[in-house]
Structure formats: structure tokens, C-alpha cells
Amino acid sequence: METGKTVPDLKLKLLIFSSFLLNVFFVSYIYRFIGNQIDSGWSSPAAVEAEAAAAISCSGHGRAYLDSVIFDGNPTCECNTCYAGKDCSLLLSNCAADANSGDPLFLEPYWRRNAAGSAVLVAGWHRMSYEANGDNYISLELERHLRLLHYAVGNAITRDHFIVFGAGSTQLVNAAVHALSPDDVNFNESSTALVVATAPFYRLYKQQTKFFDSRENLWDGDTSNLDNLNASSGANFIEFVTSPNNPDGKLKQSVIGGSSVIYDHAYYWPHYTAIANPADEDIMLFTVSKISGHAGSRFGWALVKDRKVYKKMVQYLLLNTFGVSRDTQLRILKLLKVILAEVGREGDIFKFSYETLNKRWAKLSNVISSSSRFSLQKLSPLYCTYFHKIRDPSPAYAWVKCERLEETDCEAVLREAGIISRAGEAFEAESRYTRLSLIKTKDDFDQLLSKIESLVSNERVSSM
Amino acid sequence: METGKTVPDLKLKLLIFSSFLLNVFFVSYIYRFIGNQIDSGWSSPAAVEAEAAAAISCSGHGRAYLDSVIFDGNPTCECNTCYAGKDCSLLLSNCAADANSGDPLFLEPYWRRNAAGSAVLVAGWHRMSYEANGDNYISLELERHLRLLHYAVGNAITRDHFIVFGAGSTQLVNAAVHALSPDDVNFNESSTALVVATAPFYRLYKQQTKFFDSRENLWDGDTSNLDNLNASSGANFIEFVTSPNNPDGKLKQSVIGGSSVIYDHAYYWPHYTAIANPADEDIMLFTVSKISGHAGSRFGWALVKDRKVYKKMVQYLLLNTFGVSRDTQLRILKLLKVILAEVGREGDIFKFSYETLNKRWAKLSNVISSSSRFSLQKLSPLYCTYFHKIRDPSPAYAWVKCERLEETDCEAVLREAGIISRAGEAFEAESRYTRLSLIKTKDDFDQLLSKIESLVSNERVSSM
């Protein structure tokens, strides 16, 4: 018998060779792929942390944020109205539907869908300086994208306008009033600017003007109370015009005219209204809150034609807050890029928003139409230059009227039925009116609709 | 000769088995590790984008941000003073050293070193709502960490104080003045609050009060001009006390006393001064700008004892800007966590800052000490409860005095020598004084020192 070394079988040779090749392949794959992962290092903890927070289940009725209160080492869920419990799965009974605030959470699903494009990783050394790369603490890329946005949507002319950033249009409201007021009244009240608006109007204009109580201006109330609206009468009026209006969603014009009109176009986007033509007024205010839904970011801008007014507003921003957070500016830029990339496409935010709010309005209108106790504002279909078609209404708010003679306090009527609304008096309108927000979460709208349906069906029952 | 199947060698068996085991190992490794990488998806583009921007080389004399102007598809470098070119490698000749602004970029290297811990990935749906999880739009975790910070450093008592957030202490300055002013003077100017400070003081207090020109208060100037400082004289004074003071770094006390004193403690941190004891005044202002160096984020806070004053300040924040950006609040929380984690350790930000600024002060003092033309403010070593030792000065600013009789305009003297400073008049001080910022980038300080050295050595030459 022969002993010692023998020749291996051919199949075995192939097996060894294949196994060896596989190992070579794995090593090179790992080297290339993981090599990159290991070399990139510093962004990973932040990315991991963010995905972990996002993955926390809140039953679809809430969400956990990176900076939510920590329990057991993890951020806790923050629940939608009427939901509670560790994972927001508990629906509270006897809980009022809250339709008070114009909190634009209806847009949250849009951003979850666009998670990858809309996330931004802020490095520890991002824009530490007071200075940004543009004048007056603004990011040049952000300014450029805002102009692109107006161009893409066609809702405002920007080429003749300077841009002023603000912490929400909230900050720009008083900055504009200040800029249109005289430089110094020197205790001569006759030159004091008189600030007015036409009811129903957004109460911030009045609240701010009275609260800051500048010597250079004075809240003068509703335009319908003015005897003489002729701007040449000598009185220096500053008029607020909100178009579409808050609370009733109607397109508005100036009543007084002249050059001291501040147009608040917060809602002049395809979400809420047909775009008739691009706005081109002297002062136009916009806010990201009502476009992307990022109310918490505090970012708005003003388009301003007059250089002197612009300079005064910029000075206001400097002395009030040294401009707007550069962190916020970065985030808004990222969001705008997503919006612009999707314009006219399947993922168009304006399409998403219009469809969502139109459905909500249609449902609510449908229920209210069978009621004689309540009515809604009349809004007509209009041609929209953005969608290139006639479109049905999709307002941000329902402006409800209590029709029964004896029901003069509509907010109380709804409150008794478990619906929190914002009373007409808050808009200098009759208390027969009250405002319902239609732009909150799906949970909020479902709760609202359900309570309205009960109310209206009780109407039919009690009339039987 | 025998043919057909044969028995493989033992070594070969081991080789096959090992190779096979390796295959199994690699497959499971790739499945676990890379599987995670592939499954996690949405945070990756943001992380990759951020690391790419951070990796752009700006020659150590600048940096590219995610929102820098794009050229050739990439963000471009933003260069330090006197540097230019695509990668900031070009040092400009005849370029003035800019020591004007208190821009705290000396802290940038600290955050680059802490890249992993200080990065934050902001999801597209992060805090879209107006509401935060605390009252008045504040993040509860951030408030908790601010109290922890004061406790860790020992520079302020917080347990008896409410906290108000502001867009920088800038916003809180006017919020505090407003809160301390009467609710409504009703055109009776005798109750108008008189706002004062003691020269040299930070000019924002005066600029803001005059600019916003509220009927409830009036800028009344330097305390040294007041005949009667007795608070019971009937006049309603609101006094600003900055301690350590800007521009001279000295610890200050109220001159007037009473309950309407606003203490601006922007610099009361171990970077700039010994911590003698925890401050415990009725109103204390702080800003993240001078702690972490994130001046661009616009974040500050006020510690307020009196409930009514707190409520008024909160109302100011609501009507001015609906609170502070929730994006910014998240970022600041992340930065505070890094700071707190490193307190008392090798990576302590206070240690880093003190050592940096102390060295700069020492170098500058050394040069100026050989000058008879210029002098600096006198600052003594003091015992610091944070470092548990006597520490040399490390002020944010040099308060330079021109000693020559004929040189009454010190800002002009330095400007002629290629140094931009902030004139004494900006602080209501004599123009014989001017302020140099010592807290900017290393490039800024090197340029400043170099120009000062030339100036002083010319002094020696011309006196020979």
C-alpha cells in the first residue's frame, strides 16, 4: 500500500478556491465600505441618536423629539390632543377638540415622508459668528432660495424688493410698523402714526402696537370707525391688510391706500387659496410657518420696496435680536430645497397641502350645510395660476357663525359641545362668530369633525 | 498505480475548514453591521453632506458651512480676516487687524475637537408646532440643563428664579426694561421709568431704549450725571449693571440700588473672570454667545425672581417673536451636554477658554507694558471658586488708553496703525480710550498682536 501525500479531488479543489475567492471578496468589500464608515466618524453619533428618537413608537398619535423629556434614558412621546400614555395610545374620554390655534401640524406627515431630504446635521462649529455671509446677518443662499420659491409659485414679485429676515413674520409686524412710523415725534403727537386694520383681523397687530407702546405710533382701531379715510387728510395711517384674511380666508385689498400699507401674505400660498397673480406691494410679509409648517422655527421674511423702510427694518432686527438664528436659517434652507425640488411633481408640498385642506373643508362644509344653526364663510372656486385650473376652497380656518338669534356667543356654544375655538371678539368681530383651525393634525381634525357631526345631528334630533 | 478518490491531507482539511469558518464569520458580520447601515437610511444623506462640507480645506484660515455660497456644486470657504482666495490661503497685505467685535470665534477649535458630541441631526419634522413641551415655548430639558450649568460653575443661584429664554440676551435687555417699566403711563410722563447705566457701558442699552422709544421708559444717561440717586426720591430708575463690565472687565455693583436693577452677567464665566461667589440678583441676564461661542445661534436667558416681572417678560417674548426658535433650543441643549460632560475634566471648556484668553492677555500685556504711549486696564489675580485657585486675568477685551496728552482720539491712533477698534465714545467714555476684542480667531489675535508689537517698537525707535 502506498502512503504519504495524495492528490485532492477536483471538486474539493474548486471548493477551496471558491471559498478563498469569497474571502478575498469579503475582505475587499468590508475594506471599501466599512473603511468609509470608520473614517467618517463624527457625524455618526448624531445620526444614530436622531434615528433612534424617530423610531420611538407613539402609536401614530404623537412623536418623540431629541429634546423631549428623558425617561429611562430615552426621549418620551409628546402626544396629540386627547391622547396620552407612554406611547400616546390612550384616547381620553370627555376631551375637548382643540381647534383654537393655527398650528400647522397637518404638514408633519409630508416631512416624515421626506425624511432623508429634509434632515440637516448641524456641526458643532456651524456659524458661531455674529456675522453671516450676507449683510445684516442673512444667509445668501437662503435669500436666493426664497426668491426662487416666489418665482416657482408665482405668488409675489421680488426683483424690486429688498428682503428682511425675521423671527417669524411676528417680529416683522412690529418692525414694519416701526419703520413706517416717523423717526421721532419729539412729544408732538400730531405726527404719531395711527395703526389700523379692517375687522375681522388678526389680533397680533393690535396687541403688539399697544404692548410696545412706541411714542411714534398708536393703535387706532378698525378702519370702519374712521371718519375720513383720505390719506391726504394729514393723518399718518399705517394699515394692515391680511390677504387671504385671517380668520375668513378672503382675498383683501387696502381700504385706505397710500404707501404705508403692510400686506400680510402669510396665507397667500396654494395650500390655502388660489394664486390669482403675483403680489407686488410695497411691504409684504411671509412666514415659513404657513408654508412648510415649521412654526416652531420662527422664520419669516418681508419683501420691501422702499430703501429707507428697508434700512429701518434692518436696524430694528439688529437692535431687537441681532438678526435671526443662523441655525434656523440653515434648517429653513434645507426645507426650501426639498420644496423647490418637488414643485410640480408628485411630491409637491402645495399639492399635498391643497388636497389635505380641501378634503377637510369639503367634509366640514358638507356637515355644516345640513345645519341651520351654524354657517361657514362663503368661498368660491377660483382659477389658480399655480395649479393651472379652477380649484375649490381650502382655507386654513372655518369662520363659523351662530345663526340662532339667541345664540350670540358662538365660542361658548361650541365650547359647551366640547370644541375649543377662537372667539370672534379676538378678531374684533361679533361674538356671533368664532374661528376653527383646520390646519392641525389629522387627530385634531377628526376630533373636531366628530364633535361637529354630533352637534349637527343633535340639531336634527331636537328639531324632530 | 491506484486512481479514483483519495483522502485529503490533514493540513488541507484544516485550511478548508478555516476558510469556511471565515466565510461564515464575514457573512454574519456583514449582515449585522452593514445590514444596519443599509437599513438606517434617512439620516445618511444629511450626515454625508455635513462631513463633506466639514472636510473642505480652507487652509486653517476659514471654513465652509453647509449653507455657504455654492460654487461648482460645493460650499465655498468663508475666510478669516485678511485671508482670501478659494481656500483662504492668500494673506492680504495692507490689511487691518479687526479687533472691533466681540465675536467669540476663539472657541471654534474647541467645537471642532468635540465634533462627534456637539453635532445634532435635526429631523424634518422636529418641533414644527408653536408649542414646546414647557410653558412659554421653552424646552424643559434645556431649562433643566441651564440650571445644571449654573450649579456646576457656581456663578449663579437659580432655585429662586424663573427662567425666560430670549434670542440672545439682546432680546432680553429690552424685555427686562419693558417689564420693569410702568404698565401704562397714560401720557403722564412723571411715572416714566428712567433707564441709566454707569460709563463705560455697553451701548446696546441706550441704543435699544431710544430706538424702541416706549412711552413707559426713557433713556436718562450715565449715573454720574444724576443729582439724586436716592431711589426713594420718587424717580423710577432702571439701572443696567454689567459685571464683569464690557469694555473693561471689572466686576461691578449697582450704584442706585433698589429692585429695578438689571444685571448683565454675559461675561460672568470662568473664561473671563474669577468666579467669586454665585450671583443672586433679582434679574440676571446670560448669553450662550459668551459661553459656548455660538453668537450666531441667538440664545440667551434671564433668571428672574419676581413673578410679575417674569410674566411681563414672557409676554414680551410672546408678542415680539412667539418665543425662541425650537431648532436653536435643540442645538444649545446638545452643546450644553458636551460642556457639562467635560466640567472638571481635561476637555473642560472653561479650562480651554481661560488658558486661551489668559495667554492672549499675557502676551498683549507684556507688549504694552513696555509702552509709555498706551496702557491697559488694571486687573488683579483673584481667587476663583471654579478653578479653586488664584487665577490671572483673562478678560474678553483690552481697554486701551492713549497716554500721550495730544492723542485724544485713541481709535484714530490705532486705526492709522492698521488696527480697527471700538472707540471709547461707543461706551460713553472719553475718546482717549478704545476697546480691543481678544476673543476672536487665532488669526485675528495674531494679526492684532503683530500690529501692536510694531506700534510699540516704533515707539521705542522714535524715542531713541
Automatic annotation (TrEMBL), chains A, B:
Family matches, as SUPFAM superfamilies: PLP-dependent transferases
CDD domains xrefs: AAT_like (cd00609)
Coiled-coil portions: none
Domain Alliinase EGF-like: 42-95
Cofactor: pyridoxal 5'-phosphate
Domain Alliinase C-terminal: from-to ranges: 97-456
InterPro entries reported in the protein's UniProt record: Alliinase_C, Alliinase_N_sf, EGF_alliinase, Ethylene_sulfur-biosynth, PyrdxlP-dep_Trfase, PyrdxlP-dep_Trfase_major, PyrdxlP-dep_Trfase_small
Pfam families cross-referenced by the UniProt entry: Alliinase_C, EGF_alliinase
Annotated TM spans: 12-31
Record keywords: Membrane, Pyridoxal phosphate, Transmembrane, Transmembrane helix
PANTHER family: BIFUNCTIONAL ASPARTATE AMINOTRANSFERASE AND GLUTAMATE/ASPARTATE-PREPHENATE AMINOTRANSFERASE-RELATED, TRYPTOPHAN AMINOTRANSFERASE-RELATED PROTEIN 3
Recorded family membership: Belongs to the alliinase family.
Protein name: Uncharacterized protein
Organism: Dendrobium thyrsiflorum (Pinecone-like raceme dendrobium)
